[in-house]
Design a protein that fits this description.
Elements (H helix, E strand, L loop, with lengths): L2 H13 L2 H21 L9 H4 L1 E7 L3 H14 L8 H13 L2 H9 L2 H4 L2 E5 L2 H9 L5 E5 L3 H10 L9 E4 L4 H35 L2 H6 L1 H14 L16 H21 L2 H7 L2 H7 L4 H29 L8 H29 L3 H18 L10 H6 L4 H13 L8 H24 L5
Parallel strand pairs: 1-2, 1-3
Antiparallel strand pairs: 3-4
Helix pairs in contact: 1-16, 2-13, 2-16, 4-5, 4-9, 6-12, 10-12, 13-16, 13-17, 13-18, 13-20, 14-17, 16-17, 17-20, 17-21, 18-20, 20-21
InterPro entries: ABC-2_transporter_component, ABC2_TM
Keywords: Cell membrane, Membrane, Transmembrane, Transmembrane helix
Subcellular location: Cell membrane
Length: 446
């Protein structure tokens, strides 16, 4: 019996199985479409996606009490003894001219920040309730004595701790992190000002006296206002020559990488099914060697994996308008991934045939595929997870497949992805060699 006839027979058997086709082709198409739409904000597919970050600002301080306390400190505090009357009046007038509370809110109202974030002022209890109900993405808490400590930091040669707290919702982690970075940028600017002020007053005092140093504080305050309001800009920057990946692109790849594993599990059942139906025995009686049967099984899984990949690539290209990148590299990846899946499938076939039951194929289908998909990044991009997950993803065939396809979409060159291609082909070869060794040592069990 010719090998091509055996392969053709096995492929037809898979293609005529409507239930199996629904699992390996229809289901990933539905999932890639749903996930692509629902997670577009996570990938920043549109300019407006980040701009929808909503924040509640809580003011735990009392403006009047803080200003009164600052004025009292300037008149009767420990620093009052070292300041002459002229300098004291000058510093108090700076406090009157520059409202440090406005510096923060003018920062939030600046063009760069408004592109990303809108805010409302709430009391603490209401803000936390809004966060719990996911009406907002984060709460920013300005601490007690914020006005007093800020005046002290900016006008006198000391530094008090001003800790602005950001509370994020676990379901809005990325948006909450955006808020955290923005507030961190504000705090860093203010800290830099304090350092500038300390260096300035120290140097002037060393060359002249403290009164002369205080005369320069007003100039520094003007610089601070300009720096906070105007110099904070946020831009999306991509590496030169590289493209960003959209949610549709990522999940088209991720679902395909996961569901081609089902071709291996279903192909791995076929030999035992034929043995149960006496087809396997008839082939052996007809003189078909076991090696030819195994080659046929590998070829069938290889072809099904290729057809599965090509159907999903065509669907996503035509219906979802996904750009897969260099067509030559895409076809090379389809072939390389199918080699890995074919090798994995023949390994499952061998174990299943020798065991005489479907337990291993069932465990692979119901548990191992989900685990490989998880560590490979089919559910969540591994780049957003801890660093060790990225290393772990190389142990998953789907993880390596995702890295190659997304690399092609980002305009990566073949040489940059050569090691990943080698992993796929080696995976297939290793499983084939292991299967051959098992068959030779356990031939009596078949």
């Amino acid at each position: 019996m010719k090998l091509i006839y055996i392969i053709s027979k096995d492929i037809k058997k898979i293609i005529y199985d409507k239930k199996l086709l629904a699992i390996i082709i229809l289901m990933p198409i539905v999932l890639m479409t749903i996930l692509g739409f629902s997670l577009s904000n996570m990938f920043g597919d549109s300019e407006s996606s980040i701009g929808s970050v909503n924040v509640a600002v809580v003011k735990k301080y009392n403006v009047e009490e803080d200003i009164e306390r600052f004025q009292e400190t300037m008149k009767n505090g420990i620093f009052a003894n070292g300041i002459d009357e002229k300098s004291r009046k000058s510093l108090l007038s700076i406090g009157d001219d520059y409202n440090v509370e406005n510096i923060f809110f003018e920062f939030l109202d600046s063009d760069g920040v408004k592109k990303l974030m809108s805010y409302s002022i709430e009391d603490e209890e209401n803000a936390k309730a809004m966060l719990e109900e996911e009406q907002i993405d984060a709460v920013v808490i300005l601490p007690e004595n914020y006005i007093y400590n800020t005046y002290m930091n900016y006008i006198l040669p000391i530094r008090n701790i001003v800790d602005i707290e950001v509370i994020k919702h676990t379901d809005s982690y990325i948006r909450g992190s955006v808020v955290e970075e923005i507030i961190s940028g504000f705090s860093e600017t203010m800290n830099n000002y304090c350092l500038d002020k300390e260096v300035f007053t120290d140097q002037v005092q060393r060359l002249s006296n403290m009164e002369t140093a205080f005369e320069g504080i007003e100039y520094l305050m003007e610089q601070l206002n300009d720096k906070v309001s105007d110099n904070y800009s946020i831009e999306r920057i991509t590496v030169e020559g590289k493209k960003n990946i959209t949610s549709f692109q990522y999940y088209a790849v991720a679902m395909m990488a996961m569901f081609i594993l089902y071709s291996a599990s279903n192909g791995g059942r076929l030999l035992l099914e034929e043995k149960d139906n006496i087809t396997y025995q008839r082939n052996r009686v007809a003189g078909v060697p076991l090696s030819k049967i195994m080659v046929s099984n590998f070829s069938m899984i290889f072809v099904i994996s290729m057809l599965q990949s090509l159907v999903m690539i065509l669907y996503s290209s035509i219906i979802l308008k996904i750009d897969w990148g260099d067509i030559g590299l895409v076809l090379l990846t389809v072939i390389s991934s199918s080699v890995a899946i074919g090798g994995l499938g023949i390994f499952i076939s061998t174990i299943t045939l020798i065991a005489g039951n479907y337990k291993f194929a069932n465990v692979f289908e119901l548990g191992i595929i989900q685990f490989l998909a998880l560590i490979g990044g089919s559910f969540v991009p591994v780049e957003t997870l801890p660093a060790f997950m990225n290393k772990l993803s190389y142990l998953s065939t789907s993880g390596v497949v995702i890295k190659i396809y997304t690399g092609i979409m980002r305009n990566n060159k073949f040489i940059d992805m050569l090691s990943n291609y080698a992993i796929l082909v080696s995976t297939g070869a290793i499983f084939i060699i292991i299967s051959a060794i098992i068959i030779n040592t356990r031939r009596e069990a078949i």
